């Protein structure tokens, strides 16, 4: 069969894609940024499309000759890179029209707990899409996974691993919130069954294991799975968690899509619940949390990831503050001293002034660029290059500074190394 997978390189989409390829299907992968996706899945026919802007005609062209389309795309919260109404509802409306025109079956991935009456933006837009699909005349199946657990981690599941690996104690908000889990492989298996022509259409099915797990229990089990020493769970009041949530909301304006945003806290407060019996209609018995964790033993790479995940924003914030302070101080407080340092090495006054002002301006620019997700990689490379330039220039103009007790040249090396570490951690998926 020829299957179109929308959002084929996301957490759920990548497992769906892998399963469909393993089953021998021809897969057409659809997404916005395909450079890395093409490397990860060379056997997929990749097509670029943006759900926010793709027209009915665009979707119809992509679905021509396809037996089914699996929509794995979604977003958590509105932001510069995400529009919940556009992605969850408007795009689905156009996709439904394209399915009606081409006859392709639509398998739509929603979320457990989405039901009429949800007023939060995530739940309301998800419900709007479900209602639109259910009222259409196309061949459709809606799958509603619970909290998806997978060997790979992204978004909320990455945050859970990071919290589980927190030193000394595990911080948790809404520690008694109940969630029902499902493995990414079970979701992919459900999709593999849902696309088959002999599977009855017109079904909306939850995909969850029957066991509700409290958040504090989930975090404790994840810590044990990581192989870390036991630690107590510290229940934090929602008001405390609201502070980093608001900060994460603000950072979203710069392109950073953190799972610590306020929408994630709201979803956590609501819990994740569904009807475990639904999966039987697809001849599927979802695995429990213990079964999922047992089937994917952790190693050092999981421990590294969990420990480094929360360090990543700290590293980026430190670099931003360091380069901003360096630039501003160089342009104001220590400007004349820096010029005098260069002129003492027989550099002409105008050239020394230009070097100091130019260097300070570059430092400030790099600090501002690293704060924005889209330009962060370029800024980190620039920090490494500029540091190398400072060191080389200092060695030529004032080599005695290498022996300075305060070490102005030596101290710049750790900043460059920190930029290298940030580059290694920069990828989001």
From TrEMBL:
Pfam family, one: DoxX_3
Signal peptide: none
Keywords recorded for this protein, A-Z: Membrane, Transmembrane, Transmembrane helix, Ubiquinone
GO molecular function: protein-containing complex binding
Keyword Transport among UniProt keywords: no
Family matches, as InterPro entries: ComplexI_NDUFA9_subunit, DoxX-like, NAD(P)-bd_dom, NAD(P)-bd_dom_sf
SUPFAM superfamilies linked to this entry: NAD(P)-binding Rossmann-fold domains (SSF51735)
Tagged with keyword Transmembrane: yes
Domain NAD(P)-binding, chain residue ranges per copy: 7-195
Protein name as it appears in the record: NADH-ubiquinone oxidoreductase
């Amino acid at each position: 069969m020829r299957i179109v997978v929308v959002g084929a390189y996301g957490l759920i989409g990548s497992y769906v894609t892998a399963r469909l390829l393993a089953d021998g299907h021809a897969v057409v992968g659809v997404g916005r940024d395909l450079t890395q996706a093409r490397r990860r899945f060379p056997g997929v026919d990749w097509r670029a499309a943006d759900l926010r802007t793709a027209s009915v005609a665009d979707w119809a062209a992509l679905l021509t000759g396809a037996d089914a389309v699996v929509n794995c795309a979604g977003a958590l919260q509105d932001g510069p890179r995400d529009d919940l109404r556009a992605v969850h509802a408007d795009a689905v409306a156009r996709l439904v029209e394209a399915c009606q025109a081409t006859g392709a079956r639509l398998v739509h991935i929603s979320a457990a707990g989405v039901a009429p009456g949800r007023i939060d933006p995530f739940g309301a837009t998800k419900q709007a899409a479900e209602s639109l699909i259910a009222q259409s005349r196309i061949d459709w199946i809606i799958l509603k996974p619970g909290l998806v657990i997978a060997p790979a981690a992204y978004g909320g599941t990455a945050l859970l691993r990071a919290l589980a690996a927190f030193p000394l104690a595990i911080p948790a908000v809404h520690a008694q919130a109940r969630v029902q889990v499902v493995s990414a492989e079970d979701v992919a298996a459900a999709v593999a069954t849902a696309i088959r022509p002999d599977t009855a259409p017109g079904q909306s099915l939850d995909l969850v294991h029957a066991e509700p797990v409290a958040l504090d229990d989930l975090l404790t089990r994840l810590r044990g799975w990581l192989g870390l020493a036991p630690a107590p769970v510290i229940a934090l009041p929602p008001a405390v968690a609201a502070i980093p949530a608001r900060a994460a909301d603000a950072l979203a304006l710069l392109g950073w899509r953190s799972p610590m945003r306020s929408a994630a806290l709201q979803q956590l407060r609501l819990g994740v619940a569904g009807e475990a019996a639904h999966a039987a209609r697809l001849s599927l018995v979802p695995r429990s949390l213990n079964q999922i964790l047992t089937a994917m033993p952790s190693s050092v790479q999981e421990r590294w990831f969990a420990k480094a995940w929360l360090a990543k924003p700290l590293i980026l914030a430190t670099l931003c503050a360091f380069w901003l302070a360096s630039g501003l101080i160089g342009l104001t407080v220590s400007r004349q001293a820096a010029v005098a340092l260069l002129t003492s090495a027989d550099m002409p006054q105008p050239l020394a002034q230009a070097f100091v002002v130019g260097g300070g301006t570059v430092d400030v620019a790099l600090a501002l660029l690293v704060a924005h997700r889209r330009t962060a990689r370029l800024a980190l490379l620039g920090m490494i290059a500029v540091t190398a330039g400072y060191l080389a220039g200092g060695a030529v103009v004032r080599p005695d500074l290498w022996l300075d007790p305060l070490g102005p040249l030596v101290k710049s090396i750790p900043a460059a190394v920190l930029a290298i570490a940030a580059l290694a951690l920069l990828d989001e998926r």
